[in-house]
Design brief:
This protein is α/β, with parallel strands linked by helices. It has eleven helices and 18 strands. It has a nine-stranded mixed beta sheet with strand order 11-10-9-8-14-6-15-18-17, sandwiched between helices. The chain has a five-stranded mixed beta sheet with strand order 2-1-3-4-5, with helices on both faces.
Amino acid sequence: MYMKMALELAEKGRGYTSPNPLVGAVIVKDETVIGRGCHRAAGQAHAEVDAITDAGGNCKGATLYVTLEPCNHYGRTPPCTRAILDADMARVVVAMDDPNPGVAGGGSAFLESRGITVSTGILREEARRQNTFFIKHVQTGLPYVIVKSAATLDGKIATDTGDSKWITGEAARVHVHSLRHAVDGILVGVDTIHADNPRLTTRLTGGGKHPTRIILDTKLSIPETAGVIDEHHAAGTIVVAGGSHDEGKKAALLEKGVRILTAPLRDGRIDPQKLIEILGKMNITSVLVEGGSRVASSMLRAGVVDRICFFYAPKLLAGDGISMCRGPGPETISEAIRVANIEIKRFGDDILIEGDVIP
């Protein structure tokens, strides 16, 4: 019960804690919750300290339930293990060990060496699912990549003329904005910019965090008037170009606050594997790939995608149109990309199928 409460508290930091993990904490004394806390944003107090503060210093002999092993090292904030010792707690219950190979187990071992009882593994899998972005990045240096698409029942994301508004209903689109809020970056190809001129921001009731906008643009053809180029907007924009482009255009974009990255090409297009490595080094821990069909296809074929989120609306084009993925594919069904741990959700009349891509 208490660990579930801690997991719910951790969700309050969704979208704000990167590159740190989501963490929630609950302090219990005499079977009564006396403190609740979470890590609200990178650079702010960790969940354990937040809960201790909430408890008002009445933690002697209490039990701390925390979704991630307390840190035992200095970062932007002092180690949480010291705060736990200073609070004179008797027991710490941990959902999951710290997945960082360099520090895993250190916090629990330190607390046990100081006489505090430590139990680990309560709702471990739930805690790991909550922090898939953090775990992938801290263990590999690469961002967690999600491909999102919205299509008709016959697999079309737009008509031949490029019209795609709106395939899905309002409820499905709100969920997509929740995904945007959760990730660090949103990625599209420049063809999507030319066709739709999206702003790629988060629009949720009550606000939400805007992801960094990442535009794949081999030849640097993005219009200077594009909606994603707005130096006054909180969402930064990165344009990823090939090795050869117009230096005058580059200067104009830089003047507008756009960051230009140069990435290697593969078959005339941005190399997905090299791009993901570059983004990981920039501390971008998660990326939502939203378009278009060739970008989705190249990312999937390159093996850099961790999860797919495919929406299907009860509509049929019953003819030609733009498919969810376009480009060279396998010759046989046995070579198809497999997806596991399928989840199906309904948003009004629309269906979301999501699952983990098998490496």
